Amino acid sequence: MASPPVKSGFVDFHVPSAGKPCQTWYTIHGDLQPGTTRPLVIVHGGPGGAHKYMLPAADVASAPYNIPCILYDQLGCGSSTHLPEKNGDGTFWTVQLFLDELDNLLRALGIQDDYDLLGHSWGGMLGSEHAVRHPTGLRKFVISCSPADMRTWVSAANRLRGEMPEGVQKTLTECEEEGRTDSKEYEAAVEEYYNKHVCRLSPWPEELLDAFEEMKRDPTVSMTMSGPSEFFVSGTLKNWSISDQLHKVAVPTLLLNGEYDEAQDECVEPFVKNIPGIKWVKFANSSHSPLWEERAEYKTVVGDFLTS
Predict the structure, then answer these.
(1) Does the predicted model carry a pTM greater than 0.90?
(2) Which of 59, 73, 149, 261 is catalytic?
């Protein structure tokens, strides 16, 4: 079976407050030509995780679906422009910045009038912000392992943390209280949690490891908007919520999460309650990475939804 063609490039993104020229890097899997299948735009998480770990979501670019897929690195990570000088600047790293970047990419690729969108984790949060604004070209929306409210996310993460071994809990608490969230000790304890609730594969796929390494190499976006861990959210997103706006989503929507996901059911319930006609699929053997943990099933579920 032939692999879909892949091509990559850059799109200029004008951000006056950046103080320098900015570009968004993108890659297209499949044939993005007029008259072909509607494209799927894939939005990565993090914030700041870059696109590589989302590559399995582009499996729908191959048979039997043959859906052209666009992945991109959001500003501040991967091959897009980095701005470490903006570290800690919450007035710069805003949801609106990333909405503007997405709109800019859609226009540059000429797909702004007809596209589908899939967002994972933070990407689904950003996708929800996009969808409630009634973009004229959005046809279908996939929310993958995303919370509708960050306070509920932190509450669920802390409940899951309370189920971890006592030694792990003790290390996490002590490091947070003593300001040592950048220590190897804290990192090892967080990894124990991640192995249960982020990805249950052993070893982790290299692409997923790279997402976390990406945020270590340049923590500007992740630390400014999120924080040092899933249950210690100290950034600008700590009070974020889209729950009261979800009734505005006016396109067919698919919601995904895993049985062991840190995006627990209470995190995604506002989507179910407020988006008309939403379809909810839970992956029984997955945590936060069903696109890796149950890759073939993930392709089928997403591909069938997008082509139905």
Answers:
(1) yes
(2) 261
